[in-house]
Amino acid sequence: MSTYRIQGATGDWEVVIGLEVHAQVTSNSKLFSGSATAFGAEPNSQVSLIDAAMPGMLPVPNRECIRQAVRTGMAIEAQINKWSRFDRKNYFYADLPQGYQISQLYHPIVGEGSLTIDADEKAGIPADKVIGIERIHVEQDAGKLMHDQHPTMSYVDLNRSGVALMEIVSRPDMASPAEAGAYLSKLRTILRYVGSCDGNMDQGSMRADVNVSVRRPGEELGTRTETKNVNSVRFVMQAIEHEASRQVDVLEAGGKIVQETRLFDPTTGSTRSMRSKEDAHDYRYFPDPDLLPLELDDAFLEECRASLPELPDAKRARYVGELGLSAYNAAVLTADVDTFAWFEALLAETASAQGKQPAEVAKQAANWLISEFFGALNKQGKSLEDSPVSHEQAAELLALVGKGTISGSIAKQVLETMFETGDNAGVIVEREGLKQESDTGAIEAKVDEILAANADKVAQYREGKVALFGFFVGQTMKAMAGKGNPQVVNEILKAKLG
């Protein structure tokens, strides 16, 4: 149970949160037309006669959009409705050429499901929590008004008009900004795994309407407000914090919360009123007369289910159980589709290069990727997608460590050079003479020098101060510029120290 509370002047308050996430369906064409959906196209360059609501134009459902919605429902273990229907949601706005939006109200394609957010003590989520999902329905997007193109007029761009959206409606089961952030992050991860939405929130292909109300602990639900079109996890959390605190201030001053639609301002981290909140009857929903109901057969559903990939929770469990990774490393590596794909490619290449099974090199690959490689990427402000070092090159570097050709410390140096030059690890090692020294004679000579120079510490070690062993190892490796084989160094030191 969440311990998140808002401290008001008259006592504590709880916040109750629900999210309506609009996710743009991954498809090359729109929900009811063949128009393209590429991001960043010239205004009004991706608009068909249907999108522009020209007289006599009839919509035809895009099979791929329906398929992706069904697959998403299956990924959250939701009820899939074999019979669903499109409705008209009537309202008038300049970027809605039809004067109505085709949506689903009474009979959505996906019914109840759930999503589990993971415990995170630091974030204030003490235990795993199941968040209910009420429905997923499919609808078309509206266009976009552009107010900065002319001093006295607003322009309309209809490129987004008719783009397929999944609206994923949660139950009001979240009780803190952290829970809402975890839910949205997990949902985004699942959508990207499934491939039904690219999750690019900065491009508008995934955005959230944030429903917030406050109440005294244990009391009835309060009046909610809806903050529209919030386009990042961080902004969703900020919007909740601000809106919940605002509502508490209003109530404690003797006021009432008005059910309304609000907007979030990312520059100030605050919300502001937009308009009074409409109810369903205000939109005069009725079945769309131009579209037959959707009827899904068993073969279609089976094809959808068979196409699902291994999902994040299952993948994380496999990484722990089969590969022996720590729970933390498994969580990091499965948090994003690009990360796990890169790791699995690295793992396969590393195992092949070392002639081993993936499970035998998984810990090495995971630890190195998370600590060293991600660190190098962060230093350069890059992501895995634009990494200057490929997973094939990274696997070669790990193979050099695994075979004892170079030490772990030298590998860090080599990686830095790889990032700067793009050269392969083997080339750098040969060119700069970085091969690890395993000659027992050369190492023994260095060990003798170190022990002779530190006779007092040798005596202390032999008197029982065994922690000094690490000092001797460090001094030997330093004297050999990091090229001494650690295993050989350890063996010789143990023999000489007695």
Protein architecture, described:
- The protein has 498 residues and is an alpha+beta fold.
- It has three domains: 6-303, no CATH class; 312-432, no CATH class; 440-497, Arc Repressor Mutant, subunit A (Orthogonal Bundle), CATH 1.10.10.410.
- Helix content is 40%, strand content 18%.
- The strands form four sheets. Strands 1, 2, 6, 7, 10, 11, 12, 13 and 14 form a nine-stranded mixed beta sheet that branches. A three-stranded antiparallel beta sheet has the order 5-4-15, with no helix packed on it. Strands 3-16 form a two-stranded antiparallel ribbon.
- A hairpin with a 4-residue loop joins strand 13 (260-265) and strand 14.
- It comes from Novosphingobium lindaniclasticum LE124.
Labels describing this entry:
protein biosynthesis, Asn/Gln-tRNA_amidoTrfase_suB/E, nine-stranded mixed sheet, Aspartyl/glutamyl-tRNA(Asn/Gln) amidotransferase subunit B, nucleotide-binding, alpha+beta, 15 helices, Arc Repressor Mutant, subunit A
